[in-house]
Amino acid sequence: MMDITDFYDTFFEEAGELLTEMEQHLLELDVDAPDPEQLNAIFRAAHSIKGGAGTFGFEALQRTTHLLENLLDHARCGQLTLRRDLIDVFLETKDMLNDQLDAYRQSVEPDPEALEYICQVLRQLALEEIGEDVEGAAETTVAAKTGSEDAAIEAAKTPAQAETAVPADTGRYQVALLKVAEKDRRLLIEELAHLGSVENESGDENRYEVVLVSSLGIDDIEAVLCFVTEPDQLEIAPLAAVGPEEKTPNPVPDSVLKEPEKPGAARQEQSVTPPAARKPATKTAGGGESASIRVPVSKVDQIINLVGELVITQSMLDQVVEDSGSDRDSKLSSGLSLLSRTARDLQEAVMSVRMVPMDYVFSRFPRLVRDLAGKLGKEIELITEGKSTELDKGLTERIIDPLTHLVRNSLDHGIESPEQREAAGKSRTGNLLLSAQHQGGNILIEVSDDGGGLNREKILAKAAANGLSISESMSDEDVWQLIFAPGFSTAAEVSDVSGRGVGMDVVKRNIEAMGGHVEIDSRPGNGTTTRIVLPLTLAILDGMSVRVGSETFVLPVSGVIESLQPRSEDLYPMAGEDLLLKVRDDYLPLLSVHAALDVIGAVTDPTEAIAVIVHGQGRRYALLVDELIGQQQVVVKNLETNYRKVPGISAATILGDGSVSLILDIADLHRLHQSKKTEGAFHSIPQSSHPSTLESGHTNSTRSATAQPAQRTVSNVEGVNA
Amino acid sequence: MSYVGVAEKTSTALARDREFLVFSLGEEEYAIDILKVQEIRGYDNVTRIANAPDFIKGVSNLRGVIVPIVDLRIKFRLSDAVYDDQTVVIVVNIAERVVGIVVDRVSDVMTLSDEQIKPAPEFGVSLPLDYISGLGNLEHRMLVLVDIEKLLTSREMALVAEAGE
Predict the structure, then answer these.
(1) Are B74 and A703 an interchain contact pair (Cβ–Cβ within 8 Å)?
(2) Which SMART domains match (chain B) (predicted)?
(3) What is the residue-averaged pLDDT of chain A?
(4) Rounded CA separation B99/A705 (Å)
């Protein structure tokens, strides 16, 4: 027995895609000269969703799509003249459909008030524009459908009763299943039984004919089945109606759909094969499936994990062969080098599975820009570039919020009103450019507008008021960075000045959390460009391995600026224990990794160690480490999966020898360092109280008492900063 | 590294009988529900985590999964924690997490009936009563039955971040 719920996910995904497609077409549609192909596409999307919603018993969704579909159909036939405000209604309906879909996805009924509201709006629209009450029709459909479903259940029990239970306005169809295997055929027939009653069935593998009595139209039957079969496996033709011919002279259920006057409908319902207009829609649904599969991200992650292990094992074997000193040209070593190449190719191929085009992100902006521009009374043209640039799926989800924020800011505060633009000698329409491109191992995303640009004086004034350290001689770049300061423009005055500071600290933090950084370029009167540089994936990081004592840590290369060996004349003590390192004209706080992370046996004299200049959360530090080991790509592993957040550490990775190495969190390391300083008593505890596990055979029995308070202190500080 | 293929056996065991993995910490014998045990391996390649309690030895790589390693000997202050070739890590699956626990020795797998399980006495300093599900009574042996899930997810183990942190 087929469980209809097995197909829920497919339906949700496909309906979601159809809605996205619908929105795209609605936005692109030229209201003065609508492209019939686009109108058809919009109609088909609504229609397919309606069909699916009917099968799965999602009534609210079915009712809304039915109303929308009717309106769209009239638009398609030219009986409804499109206007901008009508498109607005359609877009609103699409949003509502999305909400309903979400509700069903979470197994709850959609908001009845919202449903009533949107139905009312659509109904009103139909009355005003075409003088027809579509709502009544919808009710009939729903009622008739429910009726026929009951009938189907009845029919399953006693075929004799079914005849009498069939509702008056039904049609008879001959449904032919072509080249459908026995097993699938049974499922399809069961599915058909949900739509009406199956009267007669006969045939073989190649052509199996079923006579179906149903209140639905051909389109609906087809739309329902297209979720479970390929379009070319199905032929539906109307037959003469049973019994109730006297009541409904027309064999097709026009009275239900209330579209008797529509020539298009008549053509569709009478033709034997699906009309050409429907083909592309069914193609995308069916054809897309054969070319790609949907896989849960967790499965892909598991494969990535295993491939990572494979690569490590392979390099371990390499090491063994090298150590054994066997002949370089031996079959073993040539086999190993082949394995190495394949393993790396495999790793690359698997990683690419997680990649999705930026279109996924960009496609939501036309709507946002349209709505916001309308609200703000601005004229804006949105241009997107590099839609096909690929980026890790995990990153696309997380970049949406920061990008939305930047786009909003550009529209709200960057681009001027048409009048202001004209006065400034620019075109009335402002341009907003969203672009994505690959740049080395990174992806570069730009949000660029040709608006008024940032106002240097006002930002400086505001920064001064906020107590930030500024000077008149600061470079423009440094001034623009000021708007990323936390709480920079939460004060009301700034929103009418530049306003770009609203929540910009959050944008910056989010992007830095993804291992990226943000730059701003702005010219007064000529607009602003915000540049986001992100790693291509969250799963792989360009890492710099550093040694501290006998431990190895990994630093994200994106945070590393340079490294140098401090000279004693460049070291300046400050406030007792603090040390500053002079690098060219800057004084950077010196932060020793061994002190922050209690590593024993590390180099303590800064002039003997290496200072790695890093930046994190807008500040620069000099990290003291013993040695730079090298740069390599590492697979990022979450520590919190099985453990907890560790102060100063962002994640972990596995090195070539199979051991775990921790990835340093630069900004957090600084916080940890500070908190240890304030906890003076703890700081003075000799390092030996934290024995290294790397020393096998080391005994320690009663240290928990000293370690516990430290843990708590760190946690508290973290809580404050979070 | 070796696997204990005992998880399957349980399904055939009588409903009243439960199987436990018995291990020793110093001279004492403890037991945990075998269904929580994923595998048993040697103590190797543990990376220290700074500022963690001393009984958390660090994290280790378990076929690509980063697993925290807890030394119960230090936690219970029972014996000298010696790490050598014989040191055993029991990898357990609790609350959708994987954690390794270091013990001195794994001895065997025991099936205990309800009659053999006595309530724990009303005391306990290093191991609070909350984490003891009972005492296993076997002729000349006494097994302390540890509720490993409760113990490892407890606040004092600091393995799981507390809410609001």
Answers:
(1) yes
(2) CheW (SM00260)
(3) 74
(4) 22
**Higher model confidence: residue A705 or residue A7?**
A7
Report whether A251 contacts A238 (CB < 8 A): yes
Listed in sequence order, the residues at least 6 apart from B131 whose beta carbon sits closer than 8 Å to its beta carbon are: B146, B147, B150, B151, B154
| DSSP-derived 3-state class of residue A356 | strand
Q: Which helix (H) or strand (E) holds A616?
A: strand A610-616
Containing B59, the helix (H) or strand (E) segment is strand B56-62
Tens digits of per-residue pLDDT, B87-142? 899 999 988 899 999 999 898 898 888 888 888 777 666 667 778 888 888 878 88
The pLDDT value given to residue A224: 63
Distance from CA of B112 to the nearest CA of A (A): 30
Strand ranges for A260-399 from DSSP E: 355-357, 380-385, 390-392
φ, ψ for residue B156, nearest 5 deg:
-70, -20
Those residues with Cβ within 8 angstroms of residue A315's Cβ, 6 or more apart along the chain or in another chain = A340, A656
| ipTM for this model | 0.83
Q: Bigger pLDDT: B39 or A507?
A: B39
CA–CA distance, A324 with A244 (Å, rounded to integer): 90
Average pLDDT over residues B5-30: 69
Closest-CA distance, B158 to chain A, in angstroms, reads 8
3-state secondary structure A81-101: CCCHHHHHHHHHHHHHHHHHH
Could you say which of A306, A648, A699 has the minimum Cβ distance to residue B82? A699
CB-neighbour burial class of residue A460 (10 A; exposed 0-12, middle 13-18, buried 19+): middle
Cα–Cα distance, A493 to A505 (Å, whole number) = 18
Task: Give, as one character, the DSSP assignment of residue A455.
Answer: -
Helical axes A59-76 vs A112-130, angle rounded to 10°: 20
Chain A residues near residue B161 by CB distance under 8 angstroms: 640, 644-645
- Check B47 against A704: CB less than 8 A apart: no
Chain B 9-68, CB below 8 Å of chain A: which residues? 45-55, 57-61, 63-68
Is residue A286's pLDDT more than 60? no
pTM of the model: 0.56
Is the model's pLDDT at A135 over the cut of 60? no
What is the token pair recorded at A643? 């453990």
Q: Could you tell me the pLDDT band of residue A490, with boundaries at 50, 70 and 90? A: very low
Cβ distance of B51 and A701 shorter than 8 Å: no
Mutation target to probe the B interface, by most B beta carbons within 10 A, among A693, A700, A708 is A693
Task: For chains A and B, count residue pairs whose Cβ atoms are closer than 8 Å.
Answer: 130
The number of residues making up chain A comes to: 722
Contact between residue B69 and residue B46 where contact means Cβ atoms under 8 Å apart: yes
Residues 6+ apart with CB under 8 A from B121: B135
Cβ contacts of A153 within 8 Å, gap of 6 or more: none
**Assign residue A107 a region: left if phi > 0, alpha if psi is -120 to 50, beta otherwise?**
left
- Contact call for B97 and A672, based on CB within 8 A: no
